[in-house]
Design brief:
The complex is a heterodimer of chains A (about 400) and B (about 400). Chain A is an all-beta fold. Chain A has three helices and 28 strands. The two termini of chain B are about 40 Å apart. Chain B contains four helices and 29 strands. The chains are: A mainly beta (about 400), B mainly beta (about 400).
Chain lengths: ~400, ~400
Amino acid sequence: MENIIDAHYFVLPSQGNVYSLTKLCVSNGANKILAASLRRKVFSFEYSGDSDGFLKPTVKEVLFTYIPNGTEIISIDAFTRSQSSDDFVIGITIIKSSEHNTPTYLNIYSEWEPSSEINLDSVAQNCLTIQLDFVPYQLYHTEMYTNADKFNKEVVWLLSGSDEKIHMFREDQANHCYSEVNVADYFPELVEPPSIILWMDIYHCKNEARRVSAYGCECGYVKLAIVDLTNREVLSCWSARFEGPVSTVRLFTEESSLETPSFLNVAQQEKEEEMAVHLLVSNTLQPSVVYMNVLQQGLRNCCILPDSERYDAVLCSAIADVNMDGRHEIVLGTYSQDVLVYKYQECDADKSGTWFLLSQRSFANPIHSILYLDVTGDGVKEFVILTLRGIHIMQVISMLEGMAFPCL
Amino acid sequence: MHAVCFVRRFEFDLNGTVFPNALSLDDVDNDGSNELVVGNMSGELVIFKSDQLWQKVTGLGMITALGIGDIFNIGSNALVVVGGDGWCHILFKAKQDDVVEQRKGKLESVHIQRIPANTKVVLLGDIDGDGCTEMVMGLTDRVVRSYRWVPDSNQPGSGKLIGLHKWECANQIGTVTLNHLPDGTPCLLVAQPGGTLMKIRCHTTEGASSENSEVLAATSVEYHALASSKMRNPNVSTEIQGGIRTGGTDSCASPRYAVATLDGTLMLVEDESVIWSIQVDHQLFALTKLDITGDGRDEIVACSWDGQTYILDQEKCSVCFQLEESVMSFCSGYYTLQPGHPPVPCLVYTTFTHKIYVYYDVQLPSMRAKRFIPEQLTAIEKNPRRAQQLMEWCLYGRR
């Protein structure tokens, strides 16, 4: 984290939580950030370019409708309906606290008509509200393939709840509404967790024929399942138990899977083998761990992230190629106001390796959420770090200065 | 506006009220490292070296201002502590060649003198171009006085301060600062309410005997209004900071000075013409200069009562930092973190919760965030979206 500099910082009027930061990946490359603060305000952040190469940060409050007075925002998530357009769907879960009951809602915002250009203000005005009978936790979305047709992708909402269940919400396009469907029909691996699911992650592999799902619970239970997508059958599943709540689980590949841009006439190398998938489990009390190569080895090959328990509870994590070596590093954000970067080192002898603490950086407040994406539009990714007080945008600079690009 | 959040800081405790001019950063004990000196209203003076308290002196009266400089004109710094009650203390520690000896000794009071009371600001510097350091004091009685050290013997501290000039201003004094004309002639700038200033030039006449008091007192005073249409209130207190380095080797460019008012106007001025001015919605009470980007050009640092700190370069690019506490006094300067290492720029705040915060990791690579666009890339790919994808693939793509 030494060569990473502050690009911008802005303070939120009230604090957020681990679920209150999301990204909007716009197709023209100018990505935006959405950050929700507890007391009803949602802010969007983006950079607008200047003619002389300097960037102008823009923080704007997005006035989402149907978030009444006295409500608090719990989680926020967003996706596009298709890869090519900017047809965004934004989900916000809110809770209204009163003396007698605490009604909770999932608000889903989208453009009425599918549009090609993003207009957040008009998205924010089109709301479909679903009343919930539980307190919402993580709001997650994933792709689902309907009727064995590989090309018929549909994005669905998955919402973890205080009733120790995952709830699935699917768009009914004919009636233009969202309705809850039985999660067991589509995600049989997500039923009956032992306690509240704090974080889930889903990864598709083998040309979308397999799905790897993982979740971590409040009681410390972690489950990993591999599902065959053609008949939605759980092929194998593993579980593990930790002492404290599991803050995040993340499935990731060792190397970046970014393909060559299509406009470059570079011969695509055929993928010889599927990349190994690892599972990061960040713990609040115990050291965080990485299960290596879960497709082959399940939860058998466990690597501990050394000293990750010595920085108070780990609240959030991110997978990022921080040093641009083509391999993913693990970034952890802790309550002790530190961001830790772990790197994998392979020992040549037996192909096994260890994770070690590559660098560490302190912030002024506890870290709630970390994103690693390109918000400046130059192809270099930035860190977006949500702390208790505000949001840091951090640029990777010094390493690039004087870097030679042999391929250019 | 670009904002940053500085994290790394030292935290010191100091009870009592610290006046806005009663803190300074400089090499006070002549050991080659810069220290932080803070004095409070109850006469306590504390000196910090890196992360700890190095010396504490008590009984200095109500410390309203202090200055560090070569007041004895012997090539070594001394600390001048001025109380609002009319006592001026000079503390001194001689430079020692032996490193061990140098570490052992502390500052000692070498001179105490009665001066007119109600001093609010002290400036040590060469005001008349004679190569010697004089002392200028601004009083709350709308008076600016200058003094010169007259030694009795070679012993530092034996001698006395004698008054040279006395100027009476029309209005309350904000700060007093030193600026130079393009030819190197020093001139005093005295901030006056409403963003106006008095410019005082002291002439030294070669060959004139010092008894000739008429020649000695020959000064010229100009009054500049710095007409800015944005000025909201002619009665607000004003701060001024002179000698802002423009960086260039061009010697004919005169150093610029900055003016800030309590109602939030901040101006950069060169030769009495306003280069730019901005209006902020915070009450600016302290104004300093600091080279934060390390490019040899000074940035202007202005601090408001509620902790909002504006850092502006001379092209009007701004960065702000919010200290999340109310500020009692503020200064910026260069502070040595480890003996032997060069001093680093830092921001010093004292707060109403009896804390001193020294932010020492404040260097910024640039004032504005920039896209990373290498030259080769722009030559190959004109389409910005494609350039972005190409860059991304180069940095993060499959190997």
